Amino acid sequence: MSQQSTPTAVQQSQNSLPGLVSVKQLVKIYGAGDTRVVALDGVTVDFHQGSFTAVMGPSGSGKSTLMHCLAGLDKPTSGQVSVAGASLETLDDNHLTELRRDQVGFIFQAFNLLPTHTARQNIVLPLDLAGKRPDPTLFDTIVASLGLQGRLDHLPSQMSGGEQQRVAVARALITQPAVVVADEPTGALDSTNSARLLAYLRDAATKGQTIIMVTHDPKAASYADRALILSDGHIVEDIDDPDADKVLAATRRLGGE
C-alpha cells in the first residue's frame, strides 16, 4: 500500500544527511493489558532544514503523538528523537526545557493563551521567559502577516477563536525557532486567514525554518513540499510535492478520515 515519489537530486542529497529533526524506530505505547494502545510502532523519518512537511492520517493514526514526541512534550516508550543534533532522551528536564524554548515553536490546537495577558503579551511571552526582547521588525512582520495589528491590546476573552489561534501562531514564531511543530494550525481559521498563515509558513521554510504540520485538510497539505500519511502508528505513504488530489487519493486508500 506504500507509495513514494521518485526523489529529486536535491532530495537524494538531503536524504544522505541527518535531518534537523530525526526519528529512529520510535515506539509509543499507552496503557497496558486490555487498555494497551500502540500509538507509534517503529516510525523512522528525517525532517531536513528548510522543509515543510504535512503529517496526515485518520483519527488514531498516531500523528498527534508523533508531533508531541518531536517537540519533546511526550516521552517515547522506545526509539530516538533528535532535534538540532540533541538526542531528547539524553536530556534532563532543564535542558529539555531549554531546547524547547530555544529551538522548537509549538502551535497548539487548543491555543493555550494566558487569559490575563493581552495578545501582545502572549506573543512575546516566550521571549520574556528567556530574558530576551523581541526584534521589533520581526514582531511587526509576524503581526501584519497574521492580520493582528488591531488586536494586540485585547485579552483572549475579547477575541474570536480564529484570532486566538493567530496569536498562538505568532507566539510560536516570534522566537525564530529552528523547528515549528503545528497541530492543526488552520483548524479555527477562515479560508482567507488559513491561506495567509500557510503562505507564511511556506515562506518561513524557504528561509530555513523546518515546518512540521498536522492537518486533515488536503488544501493545507498542498502548501507543503512533502506529506506523510500515517495509519495505525506507521508511515504508509511519503508523498513529494503533494497537491490536494494526491492527498485525497492517499486518504481514500485508507478509507478516508
Description of the structure:
The chain is α/β, with parallel strands linked by helices and 257 residues long. Helix content is 35%, strand content 25%. The protein has helices spanning 9-15, 63-70, 93-103, 119-129, 136-145, 161-173, 191-206, 218-221, 244-253; strands at residues 3-4, 21-30, 37-47, 52-56, 78-83, 86-87, 104-107, 179-183, 210-214, 226-231, 234-240. Helix 4 (119-129) packs parallel to helix 6 (161-173). The protein is globular and about 50 Å long. The protein starts with a strand and ends with a helix. Mean pLDDT is 88; it is low at 1-17.
Helix content: 25-40%
Terminal residue distance: 17 Å
- What is the H/E string? EHEEEHEEHEHHHEHEHEEH
Assign an overall shape: globular
Strand order, largest beta sheet: 1-11-10-4-9-8-7
Structural class: alpha/beta
Strand content: 15-25%
Compute the CA-based radius of gyration: 18 Å
Record the SSE blueprint.
Layout: E1 3-4, H1 9-15, E2 21-30, E3 37-47, E4 52-56, H2 63-70, E5 78-83, E6 86-87, H3 93-103, E7 104-107, H4 119-129, H5 136-145, H6 161-173, E8 179-183, H7 191-206, E9 210-214, H8 218-221, E10 226-231, E11 234-240, H9 244-253
Parallel strand pairs: 1-11, 4-9, 4-10, 7-8, 8-9
Antiparallel strand pairs: 2-3, 2-5, 5-6, 10-11
Helix pairs in contact: 4-6
What are the salient characteristics of this protein?
four-stranded antiparallel sheet; globular; single chain; disordered N terminus; seven-stranded mixed sheet; alpha/beta; 257 residues
